[in-house]
Amino acid sequence: MAASGSGGSRADNGYGSQQPRRRKGPGALATAYLVIYNVVMTAGWLVIAVGLVRAYLAKGSYHSLYYSIEKPLKFFQTGALLEGYLLMAKYLLGIVPSSVVLTAFQVMSRVFLTWAVTHSVKEVQTEDSVLLFVVAWTITEIIRYSFYTFSLLNHLPYLIKWARYTLFIVLYPMGVSGELLTIYAALPFVRQSGLYSISLPNKYNFSFDYYTFLILVMISYIPIFPQLYFHMLHQRRKVLSHTEEHKKSE
């Protein structure tokens, strides 16, 4: 469940970030659908950003801001599940060069953290670590979905491209740290309550320890986070250097 893109950028799914295998591009209807989806998601994460700012100004404190954006966060983060289908379509059309498996893994890990950890273990909702990954996700997703939208419209501003391939350097570790700290904070409450755990004996002769599962989730960040992070660093060098060379040639 690692490195959900939490805070930093997800494994690069950008249109035109490499020179992938070229197939026939999406038709007008598919493009319109993709544009609408990305515009809606951009707007949704902007709503979350505004909600955070308004709550902070009203309270004068950054503590427990989660409650001010809980509903839209759940809605739009869960809406990212649609992205799995979109990514597969983009991959089949040849416009997504990166690993669909890694990206799907990131989408699922965020949804998991939203519902199976933060929603289910209410005691962690006041933790500052929740705000850490929420802020990282919010900034990342506003940039990412804007990037997709403008790319589909063939009018991608350099500032958005630069932000897409630069801000993840800070946002990604920030988000991952928030996710890990939140899962860690949830462990004692999960162990005490037996949340989602199944004990023997039962008619299915099956047992499941959610506490142990969460520990395994945390361990899974170790191999996956570096892969995604260094992949994005590689993409950054490739995309931005290509842009600079293009500018010089003009």
Structure summarized in a few sentences:
The chain has 250 residues and is mainly alpha-helical.
Notes on the structure:
The protein is an all-alpha fold. The chain has one domain. The chain is 70% helix and 0% strand. The chain is built from 8 helices and no strands. It has helices at 28-59, 66-79, 81-92, 100-119, 128-152, 158-164, 168-193, 210-249. Helix 1 (28-59) runs antiparallel to helix 5 (128-152) and helix 2 (66-79) runs antiparallel to helix 4. It is globular and about 60 Å long. It starts with 27 loop residues before the first helix and ends with a helix. One of its GO terms (molecular function) is very-long-chain (3R)-3-hydroxyacyl-CoA dehydratase activity. Pathway: Lipid metabolism; fatty acid biosynthesis. Belongs to the very long-chain fatty acids dehydratase HACD family. This is Very-long-chain (3R)-3-hydroxyacyl-CoA dehydratase. It is an enzyme of class 4 (lyase).
